[in-house]
Design a protein that fits this description.
single chain, 354 residues, 2 domains, five-stranded antiparallel β-sheet, three-stranded antiparallel β-sheet, 25% helix, globular
């Protein structure tokens, strides 16, 4: 486990092309308690908004210290992981900060205003509340899922019905026309309210594409994922245009992506759906989890500052969870019925045996 100075223990390893599997006891877990938890678990494919995952269309893995300890379902199964991609978008900001392209408290409008590209004048990033909008406002703090940019649309289907999400009313500070396409903008002064908003992350994805002048999937491939063993051909990131045009993206939420407005390309580069929708399997997602657990260090190299790494979950039973304290990483794709994540931390009674 991490020592008192937060240093990475010497028993940490970094998987090569394949994960090395070790036993529960070798991984430093209490074997009897671990087996009891697993026996009481009934993991299976998740269902969400019309998505149905039967047979082996789901998968999850538990790793510790860079070793594979346990798997459920098919850990090679790839599917879009809903909001998990928000953690990837956060990493793209962190890489930009590392390379000196921006400071997190810079105004987004210094990089991109959307003039001639965004669909309505009130959406321009040098107009209205956007005048004080920073990168940090749009991405939010590391330890919470909310953002403070004043964007409030996160689901076009519910927005058209007059609600923010299922059973949750539209915030009082937010305007409402009934059209999520029109309403995806900053409704309140940045920094004054907190709200989880896929619409705000979509605007961030557009701005990041302009900032890098590159497809942000390629940014991750070149500067991060290729270094931790996630091959570019093994994952994808659904483009915003697809989210908008596929009215049955979530079958029981028709028009879910109606808030995803143009531009869908910036300087010829495809804009990815940074609010989520990264297609990945659990084995690769666990590599990202290990990077979170080590605070951005891989094989002795600080690839990214820990501030820009976080665990994150998606509504369709997908998530990546990492504990820097125990070096546990759990990666899940469209799976339900797993034990509470913190319960695995409680099963640790020693370091990984080498």
């Amino acid at each position: 486990m991490m020592n008192s100075r937060g240093q990475i223990p010497d028993w940490i390893t970094y998987p090569g092309e394949q994960w090395k599997t070790i036993s529960v006891s070798e991984a430093g877990f209490n074997s009897e308690k671990f087996d009891s938890v697993i026996e009481s678990t009934s993991a299976k494919g998740a269902t969400f908004a019309g998505e149905i995952h039967n047979d082996n269309e789901w998968g999850a893995v538990l790793t510790r210290g860079g070793y594979l300890v346990h798997a459920w379902g098919d850990p090679t199964y790839r599917f879009q992981t809903a909001s998990v991609g928000k953690a990837f978008t956060r990493a793209v900001i962190g890489l930009a900060v590392k390379e000196g392209l921006i400071s997190p408290d810079d105004l987004v409008s210094k990089t991109w205003t959307g003039e001639g590209q965004l669909s309505h004048p009130h959406k321009l990033l040098d107009q209205g509340h956007h005048k004080t909008l920073t990168w940090r406002h749009l991405i939010g703090p590391r330890d919470a899922g909310y953002h403070s940019g004043g964007f409030s649309v996160t689901n076009g289907f519910f927005w058209r019905q007059g609600s923010y999400a299922q059973g949750i009313q539209i915030p009082e500070w937010s305007a409402f026309t009934g059209d999520p396409f029109c309403d995806n903008y900053s409704h309140a002064p940045p920094g004054t309210v907190e709200c989880y908003s896929s619409g705000g992350i979509w605007r961030l994805s557009q701005a990041l594409t302009v900032l890098w002048d590159q497809d942000i999937k390629e940014v991750l491939d070149d500067r991060l994922f290729s270094k931790i063993g996630i091959q570019a051909r093994n994952w994808d990131w659904i483009a915003g245009r697809t989210i908008f045009e596929n009215k049955t993206f979530y079958p029981s939420m028709p028009g879910y992506g109606d808030f995803v407005d143009p531009p869908y390309e910036c300087n010829g580069h495809k804009v990815r759906g940074g609010g989520g929708w990264a297609i990945m399997n659990a084995l690769d997602l666990a590599r990202f989890g290990l990077l979170v657990a080590t605070g951005g260090v891989w094989n002795g190299e600080q690839l990214i500052d820990s501030e820009w790494l976080r665990s994150h979950g998606g509504g369709n039973g997908s998530f990546v969870y990492a504990s820097p304290e125990t070096c546990i990483s759990i990666a899940v794709v469209t799976t339900k019925g797993l034990p509470p994540l913190d319960s695995f931390n409680e099963l640790v009674d020693g370091p990984v045996c080498q």
